[in-house]
Amino acid sequence: MPQCQFCGKNDMLPYKCSYCEKTFCGQHRLPENHECTAVGAGKKVVKKKNPEGEKKKSSTFTYNNEDDFID
Ligand SMILES: [Zn+2]
Ligand SMILES: [Zn+2]
To answer: How many angstroms separate the alpha carbon of residue 30 from the centre of ligand 1?
Structure first.
């Protein structure tokens, strides 16, 4: 049963904290509202962006090799 881990209130729409992964009600879903242990202790909460590593190489260099040897 979904239940707020902070106040113990049953909630139809529980929120899961992305830091401590506990379930909270709408009032206590924020880390500062449920005294989140994960967000204070471990400051290694880094959301990684998808790096733009692969750029499309549109420069298709066509080598025009016209060697006309006329004897
Ligand atoms: Zn609550
Ligand atoms: Zn939390």
So the answer is: 10
In DSSP notation, 2-14 reads: -B-TTT--B-SS-
Domains of the chain in sequence order: 1-43 (4.10.1110.10)
Residues 6+ apart with CB under 8 A from 52: none
For residue 2, the CA-to-ligand 1 centroid distance in Å is 11
pLDDT digits (tens, 9 = 90+) for 9-20: 998 888 999 999
Find the 32 Cα to ligand 2 centroid distance in Å: 8
> Against a cut of 0.85, is the pTM above it?
no
